[in-house]
Amino acid sequence: MKNEYSELEKVVDTPTSTIDILPTLLNLFGANYDSRLIAGRDVFSDAEPFVVYNSGAFITKEGRYSKYTNRFISNDGSQASKEYVDEYKEKARNLILFSAYIIEENYYNYLFTNKNVSNDLKKDMTAFNIDIPVPLDKKDYNHFVEYFKKCNENYINSKKLKGERLKKNQKVAYLTFDDGPNKYSNKILEILSKHGIKATFFVAGTNKEKGLKKIKDEGHTIALHSASHNYGYIYKNAESYLRDLYDLQNYVYQVTGEYVHYIRFPGGSRNKVSDEISLGIMEELREIVEELGFEYYDWHIATGDSSRDVTKEYVLSNVKRGISNEYDELIILMHDIHPITVEVLEDVIELCKENGYTFDKITDDTEPFHAKGVS
Asked: Do residues 263 and 217 lie in contact, with contact meaning Cβ atoms separated by under 8 Å?
C-alpha cells in the first residue's frame, strides 16, 4: 500500500553499519562537512561499501573477512586474491587507527574552539586541508619518555641501592587479573578476602574510579595494562604505545595518588598479533619500558578464562598442567571481566594450596617473568 512517502523510499542492498547514518543524514540535509573526519559513508552515494569492526574484521561488496580465522569468504564462493584481501586489511587498519587518533586527540574540540582556526573554516570543514590532525598541545614521544622517567625515578634509584631482590623460601603463586575493574571484580575481591589472599590487578580503561579505589583500599597491587586495549592503536608504533600508557598512568595517579611501575602488555610481551600491525614492535617496546623504569610481567599459566565458550573444567585443566611444571614462583593469568573467573577462582586457589603454594601480590621483590616464545 502506497503512502505519501512511498516515492521517497529507497532500498539499500549494500553492506552498511551504524557509522553510515551520520554522513547519510548530513548529505540529505545539505550540510557541509569533511568526510575525512567521519568514518562512515553516505549509503545513497556511489561510495564503495566498507564495514569495519573494532577487531579488524570487515565486509566489502565482494565478501567478508574474519580477523580470528584470517580468512576472506567471498559472496560467490570464489577465492579472493591475496592482493585484494591485503589491500582491505590495510584500509581497515588505517580506518581504526585514524578514528582512534581523532578521538584521542579530541580533535573536534580543537577544530571548533581553537582561536587560530578561522570562523570560515569552522563553518566549512571542507576547506580544512591537512593530512593528519595535529593539535597545538600535542604531546610527543620525548614528552612521554621524560614523564615516565620522572614517575619511576624513585623506583629506579631504590633498585640501584637495593641490589638483589629478597628471595622467598617457599613456593608462591601470584594471582593476576587483567582488563578490569568490572562488575565481576567485587565478587573476586570477596573471594580473595575470604581466603586472606592479596592479588594483582592489571587494570584497563580510564573510567573506573570506584573499582580502582576498592582494589587499592583492600591492599591489592594495581598494575598497568592499557587505557584503550586497542591493539591496532597501541602497537602502531612506540609513541602510540607510550601515549596509551601515559593516559592510564595519569588516570591511576589521579584516582590513587600513586605512580605505578608494573605493567603487562596486552597479549603479552611476545604476542604475535602486534607483528601484523608493526613488525618488530614488541622487541622495541620491551627495551623502551625497561629503560623507563617499568617492570613488565607475563605469566606462567594462562587459565584460558577469556576463551570463547570456556568451561570450568577447561580452566582447571590449564592450571593443573601449569602447576605440574613445579615453578617456585607461579604467575597465573586471569581476567576479572568474565563470570567464569568468579566461578572457578576458589578451585584455582585450592589447586595451588594442594601443591604447596602460598599467595602474594606483585611487589618490588617479585622477579619479573618474561615469556620466551610467542603468546
From this structure: no
Report long-range pairs for 41-44 (Cβ below 8 Å, ≥24 apart): 43/12, 43/14, 43/16, 44/10, 44/12
Residue 218 has pLDDT above 60, yes or no: yes
With contact defined as beta carbons under 8 Å apart, do 358 and 171 qualify?
A: yes
> Which pLDDT does position 118 carry in this prediction?
45
The residue whose grid cell reads 601443591 is 355
DSSP 8-state symbol, 206: S
State the Cα angle at 98 between 87 and 129, rounded to 5°.
105
Q: Taking a C-beta distance cutoff of 8 angstroms, is the pair 222, 238 a contact?
A: no
Sorted by where each starts, the structural domains of the chain and their CATH numbers stand as: 8-127 (no CATH), 141-359 (3.20.20.370)
- C-alpha to C-alpha distances, 43 to 14, 87, 152, nearest whole angstrom: 8, 22, 50
With beta carbons less than 8 A apart as the criterion, state whether 35 and 23 touch.
Answer: yes
% of the chain exceeding 70 in pLDDT: 83
HSE-CB for 16 with a 13 A CA cutoff: 17
What is the phi/psi pair of residue 123, to 5°?
-75, -35
Which one-letter DSSP state was computed for residue 211?
H
Grid coordinates given for 86: 591485503
Burial class (CB in 10 A: 0-12, 13-18, 19+), 33: middle
Contact 254, 220 (CB under 8 A): no
Per DSSP bridges, beta strands 63-66 and 262-263 are unpaired
CA 42 – CA 27 distance, rounded (Å): 7
| Interval 29-81: pLDDT, tens | 887 766 666 778 888 888 888 888 766 788 999 999 886 577 899 998 888 89
As beta bridge partners, residue 50 has 60
Task: Find all residues with CB under 8 Å of 285, minimum gap 6, and list them.
Answer: 238, 241, 265, 269
Q: At what angle do helices 238-256 and 281-291 cross, to 10 degrees?
A: 40
Q: Is the pLDDT of residue 193 over 80?
A: yes
Sequence-distant (6+) residues with CB within 8 A of 4 are: none
Question: Worst-scoring range by mean pLDDT, 84-93, 275-284, 322-331?
Answer: 84-93
Predicted TM-score (pTM) of this structure: 0.66
100-123 mean pLDDT: 56
